[in-house]
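Hello Y.,

Per our agreement to keep a running log of every chain we model this quarter, I'm adding this entry. I've kept the format consistent with earlier entries: sequence first, then predicted structure.
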Amino acid sequence: MLRAGLKALGNVRDDVVKRQTNVIEGLLGIQPKSDAVPGRGFPSLDSFGIRKFEDVFDQRVATALQRLGMPTPQEVQALRDEVRELREQLDRIGGADRSVRTAAKTPASPSRRRR
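Predicted structure for the entry above:
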């Protein structure tokens, strides 16, 4: 009796593994193995609502990130634009400042050098 129960559990486990493998392979776009039973693969995952699942997942992740205080893509883009503008301003200011510093650091003429 115990052996029959263990064998049944083993069969169920093997079946679950095969089904999970088929689902994962279908999600990844991998062709099912040739030893698979025809018609048991997942040629069209859209019939299972995978696109809807992805949309729900994306919304849940976005909501969780918002709760954690993460900036939205629009906020990140606004910060990138602001940093770019600040760098341009620094380059303009730094360009004028560099020319003044360069003139001050030029060596004295040969006639003024110590002998």
